[in-house]
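Hello again, I could really use a second opinion on something today. I've been staring at a protein lately and its backbone has me curious. Please have a think about how the structure follows from the sequence. I owe you a coffee for this, so here goes:
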Amino acid sequence: MFRIDTEINRRQTLKQAKQAALNALQEYEADWSSIHFIQVSEHVTFRVETDEGVQFLLRIHPASKPREETISELQWLSAMKSKGLILPEAVPNREGAFVTDATTSTGQRFYSTLLRWIEGERLEKGALTEEAIRKMGAMMANLHEASTDFSPSASFARPSWDSQSFKRDWEHLKLHHSHFISDEALELYSMAAAKVADRLATFTRHERNYGMIHADLHIGNVVFQDDEPFPIDFGRCGFGYHLYDIAQSIMGLYPQQRVHFIKGYERIRQLDNEAIPKLESFFIMAIIEAYSFHAENPLETEGLIEEQPYAQAILRAYVDGMPFLFQSLEVS
């Protein structure tokens, strides 16, 4: 992972990544004319343009991230594109490889991947129409449908988002909760986490409910072109339940918008009768994962504290067995 826990570390990381990006671009045939920084998270991303207006996404990956995982991500994208989906497409370097070494003048080692840019506009949730949200749901269902017969190679390596990953995230959150969760509130989190773990243990996997998923398809990873949504940023893709994928998507939507997302999904794939109770557990799982991920970053602390009243209202409803996905909750 990149060190971005302080402003000094963030600036140093970006300085190194920018130099690595310029060096990496020399290894591609793309006749680029400008490069623009986008963001830093799991990887550092840049938008690259040519004089002809062709655009690419350049990703600088930390050397510590297993290359097999990145290659596997690109393999899955290629398999899904072969089904007719419009997804990011990897661009090979001059030697025909999809992963390229990227270093700095001082010896820091990274590696890069280059993908064709998916043109479109990101929308805030307040700007989404009901039909746009339904199309997002259908988009996810099409991705799940296309992936049902995906057969990974022996060397395929992507993470699994399941009870084991949840246990790791929960243990991590317990260690670092004090930055934004009180000891009293942690008791509520503990009850919710225990209920999620118990529920996950009862779920049975099969090809219609489990497989390769995006795992991070929130509205920030969806772009709209001519009123049609397209998914981007597959850096977290892995194996998981389809309902977990849905939970990750609807977590950032308003309760009524979640209804439209589900309706859109069911235009393509019908959910079973027990889907909503299961979805509630995956929703809580996604909340705890997100807080675990951000817990050690002091730059995130203020926002995490502000979210707690609403988050804890959701956790309380879940623990008490009250529906919460499609209802507005009172926040104390």
About this structure: The first strand starts at residue 32 and ends at 40. The radius of gyration is 20 Å. The mean pLDDT is 95.
